[in-house]
Amino acid sequence: MGEVNIGRGRFMANKPFGLAVRAVVLNDKDQCLLLRRSPNNKTNIGRWELPGGKVVPCEDFVQALKREVKEEAGIDISIIKAVDAVQIELPALSVVRLIMEAWLV
Fold first, then answer.
1. Beta strands at 35-36 and 17-26: parallel, antiparallel or unpaired
2. SS3 of 7, please?
3. Which among 34, 47, 52, 99 would be 20 to 30 A from 79, CA to CA?
4. CA–CA gap between residue 41 and residue 34 (Å, rounded)
5. Phi and psi angles of residue 74, each rounded to the nearest 5 degrees, phi first
6. What angle do CA 18, 6, 44 make, to 5 degrees?
7. pTM above threshold 0.90
8. Which residues of the chain form beta strands (DSSP E)?
9. Angle of CA points 62, 100, 4, to nearest 5°
10. Confidence of residue 8 (pLDDT cuts 50, 70, 90)
11. Nearest Cα to 21, choosing from 55, 56, 49?
12. 3-state percent helix, strand, coil for the chain, nearest multiple of 5
């Protein structure tokens, strides 16, 4: 299969899909947690982003998000609800990113 146009974007139909999760972590003042990528990262050095990451095969996405936030920020969260899903095209992979609202525990 070749390149396919859907809506406003394009994707390669023969690329595998990956699943990633991100958290909009809010505190009692409705402030949102953003993390800045380390200079040691392979990609997007210095970029600000929501905490989260890849879901490993057969892993529950809620547990994956809690694990990723704990690894990255050292905090525990409670997942409230899904707020969005987006598809991101990387050179070798189409990533579906699930964005969840969360609160500090």
1. unpaired
2. coil
3. 47
4. 16
5. 70, 25
6. 45
7. no
8. 3-6, 9-12, 17-26, 35-36, 48-49, 52-54, 77-89, 94-104
9. 100
10. low
11. 55
12. 10, 50, 40
Among candidates 68, 77, 64, which has minimal Cα distance to 49? Answer: 68
CATH class of 3-104: alpha beta
What single letter denotes the amino acid at residue 90?
A: L
CA–CA separation, 88 and 31 (whole Å): 26
CA dihedral 99, 57, 66, 11 (to 10 degrees): -20
The model's pLDDT over 75-89, given as tens digits with 9 standing for 90+, comes to 999 999 999 999 999
Tell me the two tokens of residue 78: 């409670």
